[in-house]
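[audit] Reproducing an earlier prediction to check determinism. Same input, same settings, fresh worker. If the tokens differ from the archived copy the diff job will pick it up downstream; this log only records the rerun itself.
[audit] input (469 residues):
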Amino acid sequence: MSNEKLTQEEELQRNEMIRCNRLVANCQLITCSIISVTYILEFVRGAHSLPYILIVLALALITPIAQQIILKANPASTAIAHLLSIGYGAFYTFILLTATNNLVFVYVLPMFIVVLVYNDWKFIMKVAFACVGVNIVQIIVFLANGTYTMAENSVAIEIQLLVMVMISIYMTFVARLMQKNSDIRVDVIAEQSRKTEKTMALTLDVSNKMAENITTVGGKMLELNDAANTTKESMGEVNAGATDTAEAVQRQITLTGNIQTRVDEVQEGTDLILSSVQNAEQAVREGSQNINALVSQVEDSISSGKEVTRQLGELQANMERISSVVDMIGSIAQQTTMLSLNASIEAARAGESGKGFAVVATEMTKMADETGQATSQIASMLDEFSSTITNVVKVTTDMIDKIDAQHASTEAAAKSFESIAESSGSIANASSELRTGVMNLAEANKEIVDSISTISSSTCSSCVNRYCS
């Protein structure tokens, strides 16, 4: 049974790893594809060179393609997680160190959420703080080559570092708490399962002993019936003649003594049966308590899963509100572009006196265009983030459905224990009645012994008188 249980646990772990690998591989493929499309659009606009775009596409797509190949060959392979951390890490590091936009660091946030499905806090901590290190290196390099300046980009640098450090710390704590809660639930369920198996084994052993004792009682009752028939025949011989009565009575006394011995043995057997039944009832009660505790644990797991789903729903609602703010910023950028265009026209009309204002209007137009591009990228990433949250909610819902199925099975086991308890009670009552009957039989046999002794004395006196006469 233990080997079969181990096989079932290994199969459950394999299926869980397959689901996690598929979700991670698909999410990484979607994320890398979207980022690749944005870089291709920038290449079309002339923002990047062809060799640079080819390197970006290679780093973005090689890892997802390798993951899809591994999924077909061995969907439960741990290489999927390693490819996520190494492949996407290399891609993220390259675009972060070569980007000119200070918002590129958010490209790692969708993968932060996806990696939580592995429920391995040490792995998640390594990935998170590796990303923090890459961001620190990017800031140092950009400050060194003049891309960033403390005068203009100090606020952006502070926000970037603060966001990455806070997310890394929170992800590590959340992952460790989730793993600890999962381990506690698994240990409780395993302990309850071991107690249930022990109780079932004890119940089976007691049942076997009961069956053996009942068979023994049946055999002894047959012997008792044979002895009673012999007694009846002996009494007939007593009535046949006074001469043979003494010998028959003597034989009857011996047989009655044997009957008493057998009755005592039957009484001991019934006592053993009654004791075994009482032990079985105690074991069944303990098993029922264990099953009820297991039902309570499963209900707690269902409640925790529903709470996680609710919090993810709130997170998705917050993302929608952020998306609306980004849309508003894009609208403001468009209005700023129109205003700067009008200012350029007015500056042109002013001639020489409006040249300085025209330069300012041109810079405002560039800033508005860059702001519009940044808001478009943020909106795309928010959509991807929302899709990832939806997938996580689906996985959580599937987990709750499976826990519900386990809850139904546990309740069925509890009902089975109630039926066993009722059957054990019936057997106990029957054993008590059997013991009472055996005791009554012993008393009746004792009365027969006394009567035979009286008959024997009378018969002996009759024989002496007859001999003397």
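[audit] rerun output stored. Observation attached for the diff report: Residues 13-148 form one domain.
[audit] end
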